[in-house]
Input
Amino acid sequence: MSDAALAQEAHVSQEVTLKLLDTILADFGLARNNGTSTIELEGAIPALQQTKSQHIMMSLVGAIPSLGNAIAATQIFEARGGDPQTIAIDLRKAHNYLDPDIGMTPTINGQEITLDLVAGNPFLQGIYETADGRHVVPSAVYVDLVYQWSTLLDCGVNSTAVAEAIKGWTAADLEKAAEIAGMPIAVIQSAETWQETEQGKIMASQPIVPVKKVSDAPPKQLSPNPKRPLEGLKVMCVAHAIAGPSAGRTLAEHGASVLQIMYTHGFEHPFVYQYANLGCASTRLNLNSDEGRSQMWKLVREADVWIDSYREGALSKFGFTDEKLIEANPSLIVSHVRLYGVNGPWTMKPGFDMQGSASSGMMALCGGGLKTPAWPPGMVINDYTTGYYGALAIQATLLRQLKEGGGYILGPSLAGTGMSIVKLFKSSDYPQFENSQTNKLPPHEVHGETNLGYLKTVGPLPVLSKTPLGYDPVLLSPLGSDIPVFPGTGAHFDVDAVKPTAKEEVMGHMVHSTNKRVAELRLIGKSHFRSNNQS
Output
């Protein structure tokens, strides 16, 4: 391909990118011209088949949310007295930002990251047909959910048994039983059928991330002339999986002090944890104990941002409600990462990346219709994009706080992200890229020593001329290995004051709660299945 043709491809790609960037920024209440830093786009959108972009423009999805976060960060930096700078991204690398395994294999000491408790799980990547010809996506990202699904469906833990069991249910009946049982599942929708549902209509009327001002706290005061845009910002990331932690990681890339908080006996897959939580300290707190809750409230009073991603009610049962959080810290930004957001009748439904893709129409789009749904390329495109959207909403709200103050509730959601991807990033809407000849490039990489070993993984996409993105003072902490204080602050915590729970007591509680849960699921499954098959 001639140099002139490549230059023309780059020109068209950059023109489209900036136009779509402006659309996304406006949805978050931002604009490029709110600051004086400049954008430099390099290269062109690669050939669609190279980035598996036949249905979704992976390069644009990877580029724009990360670029938006860099723009917001530079505007915060300028508001604090920092100089304008250049923000550069290479469009040939952008698709790599949606999943760390797309463009490289992340390693610890040269070896791939452990894939624990994944192989053979029939609820991890399965799309199953129901009795009425619809398709559903039940999920068990963690092993306890595998047992629970097996109990509810009364079937073995293999894909054949699961398919046979689900084939005995109609989609509506199984969806209802799962809702009663509190299990993660979604019926696959097209963009059109989704927006015919009550929840779909509500979400279609909202921004990608709804924001609600809930207090009249005075304007935010941040220290002047920082070395990095978010220097001094304290972020609590009470989250698991990917969407919540990756929002914290994105803020850490711009200098925020981020503390990831896990339940004492919480689990996370190493291959998930070791990318989504880069730049974050990691601790565990026992919220069943007085001292655990007391330390959590201490952190709340010190924090600027709270991010959580557990199902609705999981933290409020310990007293951490919106009202109590804002009462303790009136200027707190509270970001609830949920499947279906914080508004509407489906707010209590649990779920993961794949339920957002199923509901929003993304799986129908990628498979060519409701009868032939397929996973999107990059299994966790929804998760990481929701994390970047969540961080962008937090930074946009921080800019708002600098002017008008207030405390805020934010509602990033996996389904909302999926809706935005289907609406704005559909490949069929960009015919100018059908014959692109530009070659893709591998991602930027981050290398460094950690307490887990020598890490090599995907580095951030944006390159800032004066405040480079990075992970300092933390690159990667082992899960739960840090004391519960914000990293880099030098705060003290008395570990001798913590009272551990005896192993026998922990096991007794786990066995009791598991047996109770299994009995409930068995009853729901049998009674609901029986009643619907007798009618």
Summary: The chain has a mean pLDDT of 95. The two ends are 65 Å apart (CA to CA).
